[in-house]
C-alpha cells in the first residue's frame, strides 16, 4: 500500500505544522513506509541509496554538518541528496533551510517541507500519522451497536428490521454507534473498529418516523463514537424451506478485511422479539469466550446418560 505526498500533505499539514518550501511538482511521489528516516549519514553522500518510499527527516545535526562544508561540497551534497528516490524531505526543529536545498529540491522534483516540531517529536508524529493513513478500511451496510460491552454488527437486506432492533436495544440500555453506512477500520492484525460518518453520526432512520437523533432523544450515554467489532449477526426473513442450525453447535464466521469474526444467522418471523434474541446471543457469546458452551454441554450430558442406560 502507498499514498501520495500530496495526500500526506493534505491530511497531515496541520498536525505536523508542514510548510512546503520546494519540489511541488513531485507531489505524486509515493510514500510506502510508515516510519520516517532520519537522514543522518545520508546527507554526507556516503550512504547510498536512500530508503525508497520512506520520508527523510533533516535535523540540526545534518544542517550543521552541511553548513560546515565548502560551497562546492555543499552543492554536490544537496544535488545528490535531492536526486534520490525518497518521496519527500521534512526539515524539523525550525532549522534554517539552506537555499541550496530549496534549489536542489526543485531541480530533483522532491517535495521539501519545513516544520517547527523538534526532530525526535517530528519523527514519532510522522510515524503515528502514517500508521493512521495506512490503516485498511471498508464500509458495510448495517447497524453497529454496543450491547453489554460487545460490539455487535447487525447486517441483512434493507427493510429486514435492523434499525428497529437497534432502537429496541437502545431502550434496553445498549449504546448506538452507527446506522446504514458503517466505516470499518483495521487497527491491528485481528482488531476492527467501526463507527459512523461524521455527517450522519448519532442519526438513525426508522420507517414511518423518519430520521431520528438518538443522542438528542436518549442522551449522550445512549451513543458511542466508535466500537470494536466483535460479533456479526445476520438477520433474514424466515424461510420454511431452509434448514437452520437448531442446536447452536456450529460456529460460523464472517471475514472482514481479513479478520474472521464470529457470526450468527437469525431468521425472523412475526412474533419473534429480535432485540431479545440479539441480547441473549451476546450473553451466550460472552459465555463461549469463558469456555461455557451450552449446546455441547447438553449433548455431552445426553451422551453420558445414554451410556448409563442399560437395555434389559
CATH superfamily assignment of the largest domain? Answer: P-loop containing nucleotide triphosphate hydrolases
Main sheet properties: 8 strands, mixed
Q: Provide the gyration radius in Å.
A: 28 Å
Write the H/E string, N to C: EHEEEEHHEHEHEEHEEEEHEEEEHH
**Count of discrete domains:** 2
Which class of the largest domain in CATH terms? Alpha Beta
CATH architecture of the largest domain: 3-Layer(aba) Sandwich
Which structural class should the secondary elements be placed in? Answer: alpha/beta
Shape: elongated
Number of helices: 9
The total of beta strands comes to 17
Portion of residues in helices?
Answer: 25-40%
Terminus-to-terminus distance: 71 Å
- Strand numbers in spatial order across the main sheet: 14-11-10-8-9-15-17-16
Would you tell me which CATH topology of the largest domain applies? Rossmann fold
Task: Please tell me about this protein's structure.
The chain contains nine helices and 17 strands. By secondary structure, it is of the alpha/beta class. The protein has two domains: 132 residues, Udp-n-acetylmuramoylalanyl-d-glutamate--2,6- Diaminopimelate Ligase, Chain: A, domain 1, CATH 3.40.1390; 162 residues, P-loop containing nucleotide triphosphate hydrolases (Rossmann fold, 3-Layer(aba) Sandwich), CATH 3.40.50. The strands form four sheets. It has an eight-stranded mixed beta sheet with strand order 14-11-10-8-9-15-17-16. The chain has a five-stranded mixed beta sheet with strand order 2-7-6-5-4. A two-stranded antiparallel ribbon has the order 1-3. Helix 1 crosses helix 5, helix 3 packs parallel to helix 4 and helix 6 crosses helix 8.
